[in-house]
Write a structure and sequence with these properties.
The chain is mainly α. It has helices at residues 14-27, 30-36, 42-62, 77-102, 107-114, 117-129, 135-152, 160-182, 188-210, 217-241, 247-253, 256-267, 273-291, 297-309. The chain has one domain. Helices cover 72% and strands 0% of the residues.
Length: 319
């Protein structure tokens, strides 16, 4: 008779934990990136960051091939390149519009409007798949959107920068849905490798017109941290997690990012205020609501299957 190892209880939650870790990585680098952009242009920073991510991912992909666990008979290197490039273009649009928007609106408004991807995702998914969002997703999205509004201290005036940043939110919603559709068809590292290489090339084209700036010590640190931690690791974690988690749930969980950014801000002397802490609590409530009852037997089996496919995995059961 086999006795379950205590860590086996965590197995059904590994995709959520992957998304949480990705959100922590994203949120913890906000201040660092902000400081580095005083020295280099946004497009130049993206060239350096995503070029490093590309270099980091190449050896991992070289050992694995292009196929994912649910590759179609018509899939090939060509379809991998097409899917990864499409996601890369969407990511490039998101990053560039966010950079434009942040220069024409307040940081709080930019943060709130970008976070509206959590609202746009179930709307686009409902249109794309011709199905109504589940009731718990609607409730969770409402809590998360209201919480994000309180957390960032945003106001409702619409400026040019606000309008541009709406495009950012739409782009990230499309990215979540697109990633959810193709991530099981292709190897995670391969899919993200093509994506970050596409962002690198697109950012280089923009940098020709925008300029480059000057590389300083803080820029090097920011590039290494974001290139490895965010663009290589966090992107891969998000893509892998979405083999099991639907885009709507993934969007709500990703709203941990502004909470992490707020915690980092608190550590350097920034304070959220009463509404800010209320907003953080509402986002956490939204995550609890969207995750409640989300691990039926078939979902647990799906995670088990993903773990079985993971090369070199550690066995987390004991006799």
């Amino acid at each position: 008779m086999k006795r379950s190892h205590p860590t086996a209880r965590l197995r059904p939650y590994l995709p959520e934990l992957a998304l949480v870790l990705a959100a922590v990585l994203y949120g913890s680098t906000f201040v660092l990136v902000q400081k580095s952009l005083h020295h280099v242009t946004p497009s130049a920073f993206n060239v350096l960051r995503f070029a490093l991510a590309t270099a980091v991912l190449v050896p991992f992909f070289a050992r694995r091939g292009w196929r994912g666990p649910a590759a179609r008979p018509t899939d090939s290197w060509r379809t991998l390149l097409m899917a990864g490039s499409a996601l890369g273009v969407v990511s490039l649009v998101a990053y560039q519009t966010q950079n434009v928007g942040i220069h024409h609106t307040s940081t709080s408004n930019a943060s709130f409007i970008t976070g509206l991807f959590v609202v746009f995702t179930p709307i686009i998914a409902a249109i794309r798949y011709r199905r109504r969002p589940r009731s718990r997703v609607v409730i969770a999205v409402g809590c998360a959107a209201l919480g994000l509004f309180f957390l960032t201290g945003a106001h409702l005036d619409m400026s040019f920068g606000d309008a541009i940043t709406v495009v950012t939110a739409l782009a990230w919603a499309v990215w979540l849905i697109g990633t959810g559709e193709v991530t099981r068809r292709f190897d995670t590292f391969g899919l993200i490798l093509v994506q970050v290489a596409t962002v690198t090339a697109g950012s280089a084209a923009v940098a020709v017109f925008e300029g480059f700036g000057h590389i300083t010590g803080i820029v090097v640190i920011a590039v290494v941290v974001t290139g490895v931690g965010c663009s290589a690791i966090a992107f891969s974690l998000s893509a892998w997690a979405q083999r099991v988690i639907d885009p709507e749930r993934a969007g709500v969980i990703n709203l941990l990012e502004p909470i992490v950014a707020g915690v980092i801000g608190y550590s350097i002397g920034e304070r959220l205020g009463v509404l800010g802490y209320l907003g953080a609590a509402l986002i956490l409530v939204g995550i609890v609501v969207v995750e409640r009852g989300s691990h039926p037997a078939d979902a647990v089996e799906a995670v088990d299957a993903e773990m079985e496919r993971a090369p070199g995995r550690a066995d987390i059961t004991a006799p």
